[in-house]
Automatic annotation (TrEMBL):
Keywords on record: ATP-binding, Nucleotide-binding, Plant defense, Repeat
Organism: Quercus lobata
Residue ranges occupied by any Disease resistance R13L4/SHOC-2-like LRR domain in the UniProt entry: 536-666
Residue ranges of domain Disease resistance protein winged helix in the record: 392-463
PROSITE patterns: LRR
GO biological process, any: defense response
Listed PANTHER family: DISEASE RESISTANCE PROTEIN RGA3, PLANT BROAD-SPECTRUM MILDEW RESISTANCE PROTEIN RPW8
Every NB-ARC domain range: 135-306
GO molecular function: ADP binding; ATP binding
Domain of life: Eukaryota
Domain Disease resistance N-terminal: 3-58
Protein name: Uncharacterized protein
Length: 678
């Protein structure tokens, strides 16, 4: 325990140092691998205990008899003790290695530590010609500022958007507008990126309005001076890059700002939707990316000398239009890529930039990623792994919220401090946090049930950047598969791919995720070879999530039962008629998806052995004839989309469960279709 605490104490500093220090980065990778292995070891132990409990029917007498009549438990115990000792020594070695890097101790827990390294301080001035494509946005904000027909003396307006979108530039553009300058007696600009400290903010406002910053004053005389300064004056205050999510903190500041004359306005720029919700009394203004034409105008301005942008080679223009597609209308990306292109005059040089990922261009990685990563740095630790995991989905992929939550849970990312809080509820809160922070964009709602979301391309680049080798979106020839990767995703399906690249894939034998992230639901090629499936299953023994949907499989290998850590299994849209009985060995399984398996005749006989099963999706399994006996013992079940009542007389088969199976399933929620009731 002391070793773990010693490592935790320096972990934050190590994470910050790894950007510059490759040795620290290597140390962190070793630590990460050790943590994964320790987790697998603990899972192996708890799974063994749970399997014994399920196998014995939880009968103490039987347990004792088995223990004394068999040497297996003793052998297992000795083997586990040996592995635990080796693991402890491994952590001790890692802890000792930390000393050579002179890592600093963190004085407070990681999850509560505030990151104070932020962006540079901003100011209020920007030349009009520097801002391109924001005329309509400027006018919309100016109209809000000059609307004095409002209830409160002081109104609050938020400008919201991801990093690099130009929120600060827009606020500067508005701040310097002639009408705005003429209509406000006091005009104050403040950058509050790092720490939202009310005393500091009050001192800065007073200093900005009086020309002298108060010194050594307590909070009471400070607030008196602030209220005198603002009293009965129509003022405009811009608070740039606000990240404070504490509503009480904000209310304490707001009280001190309410003494201005009617028509006073406070403009807040923020990346975080929840900040806008907390602060705004007028509806928030959500800033969008530049249009294609606006993006091209900005790129030309940055990539060519003044006057040259009017005589551009048509081939260069065509390449340039493709380049701006990658920038997704984000001015920071366009400006940075324009600066790179300024020194590149040939078509080949422009084509190179077009065909290179943004994160692989040094100048772009060094300028855009740090800006985007500022938001990531402020994440609580539990959100960092959830966000990085999203890099498994390709760009423009419609991410199903429920599926993502189930995958997060399968990986152990969701931690609840209180037993009464369901992990699904906590996971939903994690998701909403990322949505509020503009890391997801709502794209589609499926009949009000399943909400689907996308990630902005640059946000996806950030997820890929922070996940590094851990999460791998496999390319078409599997060349990017790393031996130490832990999560694999396949954005395509080619019938020969797995056979041809099997030797490469199996090198990553510690993976925990194997998913098919392809927007097409069913693949129109032949079935995957059973021998290939067997090889994958036997190699990937540490899988927590396995997705084999839509592969036209006719049967699932019996070896599926060896995946003791498996918590998520998707077999949807396959041609399976009978499931192997070995599935019931998967005592950790929480999610089993079989929807649209139209040839499936029956579920497993001993289904009650899946003691942790929470979600059983059998929607569209139109060939099912009955439900198995024992289904009602799965008291953790939350999702059951279909219940088929047997047409045979009650009691005609000992394997056939009737409606009585539903009696104890008190946690069921959502849709349940019952067939053959009549």
């Amino acid at each position: 325990m002391n070793t773990v605490l010693a490592i935790q104490a320096v972990l934050q500093d190590a994470e910050e140092q790894q950007v510059e220090n490759h040795q620290v980065k290597h140390w962190l990778m070793n630590l990460r691998d050790a943590i994964y292995d320790a987790d697998d070891l603990l899972s192996e132990f708890t799974t063994h205990v749970l399997q014994q409990k399920v196998m014995d029917g939880d009968k103490i007498v039987k347990k004792v008899r088995i223990f004394f009549s068999s040497s297996k438990p003793l052998v297992f115990g000795l083997e586990m003790a040996r592995k635990l000792k080796a693991m402890r020594e491994r952590f001790n070695d890692i802890s000792n290695d930390r000393d050579q890097f002179q890592l600093k101790l963190v004085g407070c827990p990681l999850k509560t530590r505030v990151v104070t390294r932020g962006r540079d301080q901003t100011h209020s001035f920007v030349p009009d010609e520097e801002v391109i494509g924001r005329e309509k946005d400027k006018q919309a904000i100016v109209d809000l500022l000059l609307d004095f027909d409002v209830e409160d003396n002081v109104s609050f307006i938020s400008i919201v958007g991801i990093g690099g979108l130009g929120k600060t530039a827009l606020a500067q553009y508005v701040f310097n507008d002639e009408k705005v300058q003429a209509n406000f007696e006091l005009k104050i600009w403040m950058c509050v990126s790092d720490v939202f400290d009310i005393k500091t903010i009050v001192e800065m406002i007073i200093g900005s309005t009086t020309g002298r910053k108060p010194k050594n004053l307590d909070m009471d005389p400070l607030q008196n001076e602030l209220r005198r300064t603002l009293s009965q004056k129509k003022y405009l205050l811009v608070l740039d890059d606000v990240r404070n999510e504490d509503s009480e903190n904000w209310c304490n500041l707001k009280r001190l700002l309410m003494g201005g004359a009617k028509g006073s306005k406070v403009v807040i720029t923020t990346r975080i939707n929840i900040v806008a919700e907390i602060t705004s009394t007028i509806s928030s203004y959500f800033l969008k990316g530049l249009s294609r034409d606006q993006s091209w105008s900005l790129l030309k301005k940055m990539a060519f000398k003044k006057g040259q942008e009017t005589v551009i080679n048509s081939n260069l223009e065509a390449i340039g239009m493709d380049i701006i597609e990658k920038c997704q209308g984000v001015p920071l990306a366009i400006r940075t890529i324009g600066k790179v292109l300024f020194f590149k005059k040939t078509e080949d040089e422009w084509l190179y930039i077009k065909n290179t990922k943004l994160t692989d261009v040094t100048q772009l990685k060094d300028s855009i990623m740090p800006v985007l990563k500022l938001s990531y740095n402020y994440f609580p630790s539990h959100l960092k792994c959830c966000f990085a995991y999203c890099s498994l989905f390709p760009k423009d992929y419609l991410i199903d919220k429920l599926t993502l939550i189930q995958l997060w849970i399968s990986q152990g990312f969701i931690q609840s401090s209180e037993e009464s809080h369901e992990v699904e509820h906590v996971a939903n809160e994690y998701f909403m946090e990322l949505l509020w922070r503009s890391f997801f964009q709502e794209a589609k709602e499926d009949g009000g049930m399943n909400r689907r979301f996308k990630m902005h391309d640059l946000i996806h680049d950030l997820a890929h950047y922070v996940s590094e080798t851990d999460c791998i979106l496999v390319d078409s020839n599997a060349k990017n598969v790393k031996e130490k990767g832990h999560h694999l995703s396949f954005p395509f399906y080619n019938i020969s791919f797995f056979e041809e690249n099997l030797s490469t894939l199996v090198k990553a034998n510690k993976i925990r995720t194997f998913i098919l992230a392809y927007n097409k639901w069913k693949y129109d090629q032949g079935p995957i070879e059973e021998s290939t499936l067997k090889k994958l299953i036997s190699t990937f023994r540490y899988l927590h999530a396995l997705d084999l949907h839509g592969l036209n499989m006719r049967m699932l290998p019996n070896t599926i039962g060896t995946l003791m850590h498996l918590k998520y299994l998707d077999l949807s849209s396959n041609d399976i008629e009978v499931l192997p009985s070995s599935i019931t060995k998967l005592v950790n399984l929480q999610t089993l998806k079989l929807c649209q398996c139209k040839k499936l005749r029956e579920l497993m006989v001993d289904i009650q052995k899946l003691v942790n099963l929470k979600h059983l999706d059998i929607d569209g399994c139109e060939n099912l004839t009955h439900m198995p006996c024992g289904l009602g013992q799965l008291t953790s079940l939350q999702t059951l989309t279909l219940f088929v009542v047997s047409k045979d007389p009650v009691g005609s088969s000992k394997h056939c469960g009737g409606l009585v199976e539903l009696n104890k399933l008190n946690d069921l929620r959502g849709k349940l279709e019952i067939k053959n009731l009549a």
